[in-house]
Automatic annotation (TrEMBL):
Its EC number is 4.4.1.8. Keywords: Lyase, Pyridoxal phosphate. It catalyses: L,L-cystathionine + H2O = L-homocysteine + pyruvate + NH4(+). SUPFAM superfamilies: PLP-dependent transferases (SSF53383). One of its GO terms (molecular function) is lyase activity. The keyword Lyase applies. Belongs to the trans-sulfuration enzymes family. InterPro entries: Cys/Met-Metab_PyrdxlP-dep_enz, Cys_b_lyase_bac, PyrdxlP-dep_Trfase, PyrdxlP-dep_Trfase_major, PyrdxlP-dep_Trfase_small. Its cofactor is pyridoxal 5'-phosphate. This is Cystathionine beta-lyase.
Length: 396
């Protein structure tokens, strides 16, 4: 593997680093990409080595050269002490929760969290005896008032799922660490290219690599990267649970990383263009995009983030009794925008947003909330498609 302390690589630009991290051609007979190693059984040269496990690879669930290559790439991007790979973005949230929380502990979870995370907290963690409390995403340093003697973890996500609220991550981590509380962050929206959580005091950075690292809507995987203090417990939990990333998926994510910087620049530019255009429309009540000066959390985004990805939401203006019908008419009229969950791929997507599980940041009252993923298509074509949707909604 290419060493992380390579000074030339460490000082290189984003796209140069993405082209060279997580592989070492000299280690594989000159082949540019690391091989896909399929493995369960790994043989030992003798019984002493087997007893002591004193060789690099011992079993397929522990690691392979392919999964190691991807983990090293993420460590390069995150500045982390170690990374684990898991089968999904949700697993990337649940595994660290299981690693750091025990019965009787109290966990603070941001109310704008990814909905399946809330379900995991309200079901499995609650059954295991963990006390769950949700907090306002804009609470900042005020989170100190919610900390109890048994608070062990604060989970953050910025921007928030669907409603895009920004969190003051440095303020939260400063408070948390004074109380010896672990801070985890779902950073899927920004990727480590636009925000590096560990640089802002976060202990554990979580990603659904299904999204931008993959980039092609054909892989489901997650990654979790931890700082030196919290890495051993995370790795121990992964091994204990028997969870691992597949080598074929790891190879495809590695392939996706090579173009992630170029793709993100296109996603960012197109999404901001469309978001700005949507703000001018009378049939749009609000546009929820952190990079827009009109957005309430824009100042935090501008202070801490290096860029914005292709996902944002808007409120389709509608009276309460017509909101659902207008949203369905809008969505059903679209062609280039597919109706599908997830995001981060090359294709544009649109989904109606259901916020019925929220306890603090509830659904908007000025219309229907719709989330867009702006893909790699031409902006002019996407605007034409949205125009057709708006016309359909107006007819309701």
């Amino acid at each position: 593997m290419k060493k992380t302390q390579d000074p030339l690589l460490a000082e290189a630009g984003t796209n140069t680093r993405l082209a060279h991290i997580g592989h070492d051609p000299s280690g594989y007979h000159g082949f540019v990409n690391p091989p896909v190693v399929h493995a369960s059984t790994v043989l030992f040269p003798n019984s002493s080595t087997m007893e002591k496990r004193s060789q690099k690879y011992t079993y397929g669930t522990r690691a392979t050269p392919t999964t190691d290559a991807l983990c090293q790439a993420f460590d390069e991007l995150e500045g982390s002490a170690g990374t684990i790979l898991v089968p999904s973005g949700l697993a990337a949230i649940s595994v660290p929760f299981l690693a750091y929380l025990s019965s009787g502990d109290h966990a603070l979870i941001v109310d704008s969290v990814y909905a399946p995370c809330r379900h995991f907290c309200n079901t499995m963690l609650t059954r295991l005896g963990v006390e769950i409390e949700y907090y306002d995403p804009e609470i900042g340093a005020g989170i100190e008032a919610l900390i109890k003697p048994n608070t062990r973890l604060i989970h953050t996500e910025a921007p928030g799922s669907n409603t895009m609220e920004m969190q003051d991550i440095p303020a939260i981590t400063e408070v948390a660490h004074r109380h010896d509380i672990i801070v985890t962050m779902d950073n899927t929206w920004a990727t480590p290219l636009f925000f590096k959580p560990l640089d802002f005091g976060v202990d554990v950075s979580i990603h659904a690599t299904t999204k931008y690292p993959s980039g092609h809507s054909d892989i489901v995987m997650g990654s979790v990267s931890a700082n030196a203090k919290h890495w051993p417990k995370l790795e121990e939990a992964r091994i204990t649970l028997g969870i691992c990333g597949a080598p074929d998926d790891s190879y495809m994510i590695l392939r996706g990383l090579r173009t992630m910087g170029v793709r993100l620049e296109h996603h960012q530019k197109s999404a901001l263009d469309i978001a700005t255009w949507l703000e001018t429309r009378d049939d749009v009540a609000r546009v929820l995009h952190p990079a827009l000066p009109s957005f309430p959390g824009h100042a935090i985004w501008k202070r801490d983030f290096k860029g914005a990805s292709g996902v944002f939401s808007f409120v389709l203006k509608a009276d309460a009794e017509k909101a659902k019908a207008k949203a369905h008419a809008f969505l059903d009229a679209l062609s280039f925008f597919g109706l599908g969950y997830s995001w981060g791929g090359y294709e544009s997507l649109a989904v109606p947003v259901n916020l019925s599980d929220r306890t603090i940041r509830t659904a908007p009252t000025d219309g229907a909330l719709i989330r867009l993923q702006i893909g790699l298509e031409d902006v002019a074509d996407l605007k034409k498609d949205l125009e057709i949707g708006f016309a359909a909604a107006a007819a309701v």
